[in-house]
Amino acid sequence: MKSLRIAAFAAAFGMLASGAVAQTTLRIGLAEDPDILDPTLARTYVGRIVFSAICDKLFDINEKLEIVPQLATGYTVSPDGESVTIKLRQGVKFHDGETFDAEAAKFSLERHLTMQGSFRKPEIAQIDRIEVVDPLTIRLALKAPFSPLMAQLTDRAGMMVSPKAAKETGDKFGLKPVCAGPYKFVERVQQDRIVVEKFADYWNKDNVHIDRVVYLPIVDSTVRLANLRAGSLQMVERFLATDVKTVKEDKRLKMVSAIDLGYQGLTLNLANGPKADNPLGKSAKVRKAFELAIDRDAINQVVFNGEFLVGNQWINPRNPYYQQSVPVPKRDVAKAKALLKEAGVTGRVELDFMVTNNPETRQIAEMLQSMMAEVGFDLKIRVTEFATALKEAEDGNFQVFLIGWSGRTDPDGNLYVFVTCNAPQNNGKYCDPKTDEEVKKARVASDLAERKKIYEPATKRLVGDNEGPIIYLYHRGILTAYTEKLEGYTQLPDGLIRLVGLKLKP
User: Fold this and answer.
1) 135-144, pLDDT tens digit by residue?
2) Which of 95, 145, 316, 402 is the most exposed place for a label (fewest CB within 10 A)?
3) Distance from CA of residue 460 to its chain's centroid?
4) Strand 127-134 with 137-142, pairing
5) Cα–Cα distance, 410 to 352 (Å, whole number)
6) Domain range 59-165, its CATH number among 3.40.50.360, 3.20.20.300, 3.30.470.20, 3.90.76.10
7) Is 191 left (phi over 0), alpha (psi -120 to 50) or beta?
8) Class of domain 2-55+181-258+478-504
9) What would the pLDDT profile of 335-384 be if each residue is shown by its tens digit?
């Protein structure tokens, strides 16, 4: 049914493009349907993929993870580290024709900081005030030096929205986002498609060669790849690792891979409502037993064909911030059982195990269920639609949640919003003053070695002693496949699909 729907949709676009000058349309298969398309309120990885087409940021990253200009042209940091001056690009228009300038940049940043429900606020909360220096210059006055700031501005916190459109639509802005990216929003049909088209007044329009892009959420990875091979799609993100051989053998396709900046793991409910009242939520010793039941290498080999990288921290083992003093633990059933006994646990521990609805996730869940059963945990798998699962997690309606984070270039972006007291994505409701102090102190330091040393005790507490709300499992290889007719594509470790510079041959 899904294949037929996509084929029909493709045919419809083909007819639209059959005029004197044929339009090029790139159809991209997404693994999930994004949440709201408002950069202030959004939180999904697939949403970031769509945003990369419609909402330019102040800065971006390159293949070396260096910060590079986008809507800004450069920045300077004051000697005391307490202010940052940003120069803005001239001649930029929003999709509604409004001019992007210092006032617009100030509005967007203040919206991220003050809007009800903003997920960007904790990312840039160290900004005390934003000053307009001149029409193309803003100055960010900080509460204290804040080393992750520029990295945050390479993502949704740095996305600029049209003040006019945002004021007119308020919290409904995400239904028809108006930004300053290479493509402007056309339509969205929930769970079906998101359509964008080339913006004629884009500041870098000479490097935009594809007329229209259609994002199609197709949860089933097998169906997603089948549509790529059939020609109904021209690109798919996150195809199955077990399909790497199939993609490589298909001469009509190309593939790229990169270890992502984020992680996949198990979020545990420690103090978020009544469901936290269980041995796993109440005892770090039980959580250590839970982790020792896990064989990360087996999951990587069986589900991901060895293509991914196992890990136990919020950054991967190849990252310079990885703490070698807290290595990935090996499975130890005997020790796990002994820890449960020490914790006074008798009988089996039954747990509500929420997972999102895709084949790989379900397979991981079943492997974990089997591993845990040998130790004494009874995982009750509850398959839940992706956006619904995020809301369930916020509301505390879970005990264990298999979920990941797409990652940020600075380690703070993988940690702060998940483990500090009252942070918006701290769904397990972990709260520890020592951890808060250390994580905040690392935000002030700028030297890598110094910051890594600051992070070490927090790592030992959160991960080594299992006091934290997340058991990190592995780091994905970002697997992207596309037609050989698509030229110029480069995969960066953030997983986003950047469309500027791409060409699609007939």
Assistant:
1) 999 999 999 9
2) 145
3) 25
4) antiparallel
5) 33
6) 3.90.76.10
7) left
8) alpha beta
9) 999 999 999 999 999 999 999 988 889 999 999 999 999 999 999 999 99
